[in-house]
Design brief:
Chain lengths: 111, 118
């Protein structure tokens, strides 16, 4: 079973600070997704990375896929209260489009 | 935009009741999934379906069954609800197969059903 470990598990920061969330595995993935989930809602897809070393930007969010396609990071610049939520990474885990979800990072941005 | 809807946002059932959770997607996606999400345990796959009438067990299928009679609809059934099935249930769909030159694994989730079994 492929495992995706995320760190840190919890993060509480002040508005305006920068932060990085990590997603690590010993397995190679053909693609990796990042989702954000707000309390009481389903996860919402933020981005997909598919090429080793790839960097994608979504406003203040920067996503990077590791060169070996085993890990990924999410960097948020000047965090806002609206960034609060649970961040999940997910990688493909075999046939039929199944994915393995990471353990999650719960982010709280304090105004 | 992909839309995945779930029949209820909140549900309270008694132990032993048969429970149906319905999920509908409007994007002609091949694959549909049922997960449960519990604090400290993350998202766990219960069942998934890659085609009409086809289903595969996920990581925690015990106590659950599913039905997919139409492409857009995927139902999760708790045959005899128990208190340890109290959880947040999430349905998702994905396109499946090749999209352009890439295989896509992107999943689109519904808002979830918070089920409480008393």
């Amino acid at each position: 079973t492929q495992l995706l470990e995320q760190s840190p598990q919890f993060l509480s920061i002040q508005e305006g600070e920068n932060l990085t969330v990590y997603c690590n595995s010993s397995s190679v993935f053909s693609s990796l997704q990042w989702y954000r989930q707000e309390p009481g809602e389903g996860p919402v897809l933020l981005v997909t990375v598919v090429t080793g070393g790839e960097v994608k930007k979504l406003k203040r969010l920067t996503f990077q896929f590791g060169d070996a396609r085993k890990d990924s990071s999410l960097h948020i610049t000047a965090a806002q209260p609206g960034d609060t939520g649970l961040y999940l990474c997910a990688g493909d885990s075999g046939g039929y489009q199944k994915v393995t979800f990471g353990t999650g990072t719960k982010l709280q941005v304090i105004p | 935009d992909v839309k995945v809807t779930q029949s209820s946002r909140y549900l309270v059932k008694r132990t032993g009741e048969k429970v149906f959770l319905e999920c509908v997607q409007d994007m002609d996606h091949e694959n549909m999934f049922w997960y449960r999400q519990d604090p400290g345990l993350g998202l766990r796959l219960i069942y998934f379906s890659y085609d009409v009438k086809m289903k595969e067990k996920g990581d925690i299928p015990e106590g659950y069954s599913v039905s997919r009679e139409k492409k857009e609809r995927f139902s999760l059934i708790l045959e005899s609800a128990s208190t340890n099935q109290t959880s947040m249930y999430l349905c998702a769909s994905s396109l499946g197969g090749l999209w352009g030159t890439e295989v896509t694994y992107e999943q689109y989730f519904g808002p979830g059903t918070r089920l409480t079994v008393t």
